Amino acid sequence: MGLEKRDVLARTRELHIQRAVKQGVGGDIIGPPKWGKTRYVDIPPNLWPVVERLLTEPRPAGHDQEVLLRGPRTGKRWQTSSLSVRWHNFAVELEEKAGIKARGLHCFRHTYATLMAESVTQNPFVLKEILGHKRISTTEQYCHPTAPVITLPVGILTEKGGRQEWTQRKRHIKMTC
Questions:
Q1: Which pLDDT score, from 0 to 100, does residue 33 have?
Q2: Coil, strand or helix: which one is 175?
Q3: Which tens digits make up the pLDDT trace of 72-94?
Q4: Which CA distances in Å does 131 have to 27, 111, 135, 148, 153?
Q5: CA distance linking residue 90 with residue 81, whole number of Å
Q6: Which residues, 6+ apart, have CB-to-CB distance to 52 below 8 Å?
Q7: What's residue 12's pLDDT?
Q8: How many C-beta neighbours within 10 Å does residue 153 have?
Q9: Which of 32, 36, 58, 125 has a C-alpha 20 to 30 A away from that of 166?
Q10: Could you give the CA distance from residue 81 to residue 128 in angstroms, rounded to a whole number?
């Protein structure tokens, strides 16, 4: 949520993580990332068209022109409280309709770390840097290599004839929290 257009390095297809947004009293606080350490993260090839669209799409007057991810109605930076409420509503629906108990948003960080750790090309020290951890022991706590795998119907963004559309597919997802 702290990402801005200038954080996208198109030539190398990387994100420069240089700020974090934290929920504070009376609103969000924008500051440096954990430990004050900036880092670079590769943008996966299948996600690049989405990032490119976010960079080039015209924005109405009054909308924040520099924020990469913004609220659809206000055009302002996503507030952490709004995202938490949306996730909670989705999690309740997921449990009611599919019987799957979803946890907090932070769980995605554990899932990402586990998937990256299981990748044969991933060095644990590189993963530590990507996650922005100070110690390798912290990175180890995020990885759950024996996590169960479940199959869920998931919306997938695909390109067809120069336009993007969502399609439903079954995906095997490793639940790590």
A1: 78
A2: coil
A3: 777 777 766 676 777 777 777 77
A4: 25, 12, 11, 22, 28
A5: 14
A6: 10
A7: 93
A8: 9
A9: 58
A10: 28
The model's pLDDT over 139-175, given as tens digits with 9 standing for 90+, comes to: 888 887 765 555 555 555 556 666 656 555 555 555 5
Instruction: Match 């990387």 to its residue by tokens.
Output: 14
Nearest-angstrom CA–CA distance, 176 and 1: 23
For residue 20, which amino acid is it?
Answer: A
Residue position matching structure tokens 């997802």: 173
Which residue bears the tokens 């500051």?
31
Identify residue 171 by its one-letter amino acid code.
Answer: R
Residue 29 tokens, joined? 């606080």
Sequence letter at residue 108: F
The rounded mean pLDDT for the chain is 75
102 CB-contact burial (10 Å; exposed 0-12 / middle 13-18 / buried 19+):
middle
